[in-house]
Amino acid sequence: MSSPIILFGIELAAELNAATAARAAALPFTPTLATVLVGDDPGSAKYVAMKQRRCAQYGLGSRHVRLASDTSTAELIAVLIDLGADPDVHGILLQHPLPPQIDERAAYDAIPLRKDVDGTSSAAFAAAALGQPGHRSCTPAGIVRLLDHYRVELAGADVVIVGRSAILGKPLAAMLTARDATVTVCHSRTRDLATHTSRAEILVAAAGRPGLITAAMVRSGAVVVDAGFTPGDVSEEAAEVARAASPVPGGVGPMTIAMLLAQTVDAAQAVVGSR
């Protein structure tokens, strides 16, 4: 069997970022993303800092709000409401995960749909599920864009997603269903996971469990998308069975941030269009 096609997100993200920068420069104001971080988790702080650097790199403004780890849900919601009302802020990102005392769903739903450029609110999920206007969850949107770029046929495809998180597995299932794929969502309670994954024409691993997907769990010639963190949910041997596979790092990750920036500019352009 020939070597699999590598679904690189780095080059595609660079193209998307260049287009985003051009659109940002054409606006009569600087499109601005507000990031909100609750607590002092090092990983979260690193991701937020990276997003701020990307904003500066591609002509977007950024504003950062850092809150104490003991912040209450009511205090967080008040901050999000203020940002939602600020005309100089066009997109809002609330960094996940949140401390245990925070009602995550209430917090995400405090972000207005027009500024929910990370696609985490209930309204954004409903819009994706129903095919209505709205910003899509960034990682799923990046995966769909990556598959389109490599001309992976979605209509009629048998897709299995391993992972059912509200920011990845569930919205991705909605997006792919809207593209006429037949989608199965698997999770920690799924019996005999390999039975499902081994029949998939397109397999998306999004469980956050390194090496979960082994070669025996992959259909020969399948397209495999690894949405896990480094070192990835898909073993090296499993990726070699595939017709095409995304690497970790360099696959889905760059697309996530590219979609975030693009949707921030989309939100800013909508402001111009409404004037």
UniProtKB/TrEMBL annotation:
Alphabetical keyword list: Amino-acid biosynthesis, Histidine biosynthesis, Hydrolase, Methionine biosynthesis, Multifunctional enzyme, NADP, One-carbon metabolism, Oxidoreductase, Purine biosynthesis
The protein's annotated pathway: One-carbon metabolism; tetrahydrofolate interconversion
Pfam families: THF_DHG_CYH (PF00763), THF_DHG_CYH_C (PF02882)
Domain Tetrahydrofolate dehydrogenase/cyclohydrolase catalytic residues, every copy: 11-118
EC number: 1.5.1.5, 3.5.4.9
Domain Tetrahydrofolate dehydrogenase/cyclohydrolase NAD(P)-binding stretches: 137-270
Signal peptide feature range: none
Classification via HAMAP family: THF_DHG_CYH
Function per UniProt: Catalyzes the oxidation of 5,10-methylenetetrahydrofolate to 5,10-methenyltetrahydrofolate and then the hydrolysis of 5,10-methenyltetrahydrofolate to 10-formyltetrahydrofolate.
Name by which UniProt lists this protein: Bifunctional protein FolD
Native species: Tsukamurella paurometabola
